[in-house]
Design goal:
- With 223 residues, this protein is mainly beta.
- The protein has two helices and ten strands; from the N terminus they run E-E-E-E-H-H-E-E-E-E-E-E.
- Strands 1, 2, 3, 4, 5, 6, 7, 8, 9 and 10 form a ten-stranded antiparallel sheet that branches.
């Protein structure tokens, strides 16, 4: 059972490009949910076959696309249902996929990873030197309107908050796949505040970066 720890916080919204109903990754009424030891069949994540696609951009409409790899983790199944698991993201694997110019691609990837020489620029986004991984700990899976909704505690840059997203989960004799619908997270909940219009006052409109990051994950695991 989900245990609410803190008061209700406001949800940030964003119109998705998908034709599906808009979804959000922030769960109302909690910042973390209770972790209960999951019992069932354990499946190990196949890192080379598991990827998270991301999209972020300015409020002006300029955007970038990319991927993040899973480093390791597991999914726990019981009677055909996902009951727990942990996904560890390799933040050093952040790539930008929409840029073909090698120099521009390298600069943006370096900025996102925080590979600059000064502490301020290193912390603009994900600061992978200090925080090389991010972790999702699955705490609850429910069904809402015919969709499986996966909920968990997501830790990034030393901060933890609840995420919730729709997913299709398929178990076979040898493995499990988890494929999410597109969903969003509010990056400022994890201290990723660079050029956020809700955090930094008086930013020029052409400098403001959306707080919301779109995500879509494909995860494979085997016994």
């Amino acid at each position: 059972m989900k245990k609410n720890i803190l008061a209700v916080f406001a949800l940030a919204t964003l119109s998705l490009t998908s034709c599906k109903k808009e979804t959000t990754a922030a769960a109302e009424g909690a910042e973390t949910t209770e972790v209960v030891a999951a019992e069932g069949t354990n499946y190990a994540i196949k890192a080379g076959e598991s990827t998270i696609n991301w999209e972020g951009g300015k409020i002006s409409g300029d955007k970038h696309l990319g991927t993040i790899n899973l480093q390791e983790g597991n999914l726990v199944m019981n009677d055909g249902k996902l009951v727990g698991g942990t996904l560890i993201l390799d933040m050093n694997s952040i790539t930008v996929t929409d840029l073909t110019d090698a120099e521009m691609k390298g600069k943006l990837e370096g900025h996102l990873k925080g590979l600059g020489d000064d502490a301020e620029s290193q912390d603009h986004f994900f600061n992978v030197k200090t925080y090389p991984t991010a972790t999702l700990e699955i705490t609850n899976v429910t069904e809402e309107n015919g969709k499986q909704m996966v909920e968990g505690n997501f830790t990034m840059k030393g901060k933890t908050d609840v995420v919730k997203f729709p997913a299709t989960i398929t178990e076979t004799e040898t493995g499990v796949t988890l494929a999410t619908d597109e969903f969003t997270i509010d990056r400022t909940k994890w201290g990723v505040n660079h050029n956020s219009g809700t955090v930094i006052a008086d930013l020029a409109a052409d400098k403001v970066i959306n707080d919301e990051i779109k995500l879509k994950a494909s995860v494979a695991a085997v016994k």
